[in-house]
Amino acid sequence: MNQLTVWSGLTTIGCNIMTLHDQESRLIMDFGMANDQLEGRNYHSKIAGLIAEDKLPGIPYLYNEEDLEDSNLAANTSTPFSQEAVFISHLHLDHMQGLKYLPDRYQVYMTEASYQLYQNLIAIGDEFPIAAQVIPVPYNQSLSIGKYMVKFIPTDHDIPGSSAIYISHDHTHVLYSGDFRFTGFTSDRMENLIKEKLPIDILLCEGTAFSFDEEVGEGDNGDRLQSEHELLVKTQALFSQRDQAIVINPYPRNLDRLMALNEMSLRVKRPIAWDKNFAYLLHEFTQDPVYSWDPAADSYSQVVEFNQRNHYAYQIAYQDIDQLDHIGPGLYLHMNGEPLGDFDPRYQTFLDQIASHGYDLVNMGVSGHANKEDLVYFASEMQADITIPWHSFHPKRLASALEQLGLTTFVPEIGAVYDIEAPLD
Ligand SMILES: [Zn+2]
Ligand SMILES: [Zn+2]
């Protein structure tokens, strides 16, 4: 017996959670949340409220009984599984924000690079230690949980440690793609995964790009960039002009981009001065010199002044936006930092603030997700018996694109239990 259940993330971008179990063991794949703010009444506990508001999945035997309110779930807290483990594909919030609500009996496995990033995010206060035990695993090393064999396979995404997760059980094999793209600095990882020609009964494939009528990365003024390399080249050209102040706003967890930008800025002799958190992360991940505009960062970086706008570029996160007063006017390169787009209620205020400080906004974002063509290419090359599209507003659009190529797809019901040793229906 090997049974699969999808608990969330079928028609949302992220927060995709599934379990696989047999009589003895259960695996939980990813444990993300969109947000963990309660909207409703006084619940029995925070966990009970988050489950009631569909922010945490109502998975049986997962939570401690005293945290639960729903009588059905509460009656089911004595687990029949002798072995259980949680696997995290990468450290974006939509894949791991729920970890802090896991009971302490769980082991949480993630790649070594994810683990290193996690420890450093805790050090800067961007994450907090959790009750469950977090265990780093090297890429491609098989781990057994009961009859299950699990390994993390490296992928190209916009965060260190990103992975697809391959799960074998007797003669059935499941690949969970995680989030991926072919346009980062490590796109060869995707080609290597394809070349492995792993036997796959079920592929759970992200479908972010099929959420939108336009391609991911388009939108706004259609001026998003196609790849990390293009971002680097265009940023270097702007840095080299030196006639105006430049401020950048990237996302702190995209360390490959931060390291590439830092290295480029040193090479063109216009170093980026980072805030203390970014400077800390860079100091931990690279041997290159790191500059900061924050005197609090002086133990791990070289602190510089704001008044040398032609000699330095500056990284300013949204919470520090008033610092623009000390630098500008100039160019504001928006590189997937917060607030990311107009779905964020802070976005219009942000645009007004940029303009009032005298900055021209340049959208220099690159998507962390494969475009539609690359998604279809990946899923068709993987040659799974069945592909389950998820992590998309419109999983059926990816399904029909694949069906047209002769692939078999399946869109499961949330919470339904499927025996994957038999045909799915
Ligand atoms: Zn995601
Ligand atoms: Zn992601």
UniProtKB/TrEMBL annotation:
<dbReference type="Pfam" id="PF12706">
    <property type="entry name" value="Lactamase_B_2"/>
</dbReference>
<dbReference type="GO" id="GO:0003723">
    <property type="term" value="F:RNA binding"/>
</dbReference>
<feature type="domain" description="Metallo-beta-lactamase">
    <location>
        <begin position="14"/>
        <end position="207"/>
    </location>
</feature>
<dbReference type="InterPro" id="IPR001279">
    <property type="entry name" value="Metallo-B-lactamas"/>
</dbReference>
<keyword id="KW-0269">Exonuclease</keyword>
<protein>
    <submittedName>
        <fullName>MBL fold metallo-hydrolase</fullName>
    </submittedName>
</protein>
<keyword id="KW-0540">Nuclease</keyword>
<dbReference type="GO" id="GO:0004527">
    <property type="term" value="F:exonuclease activity"/>
</dbReference>
<dbReference type="InterPro" id="IPR036866">
    <property type="entry name" value="RibonucZ/Hydroxyglut_hydro"/>
</dbReference>
<keyword id="KW-0378">Hydrolase</keyword>
<keyword id="KW-0694">RNA-binding</keyword>
<dbReference type="InterPro" id="IPR042173">
    <property type="entry name" value="RNase_J_2"/>
</dbReference>
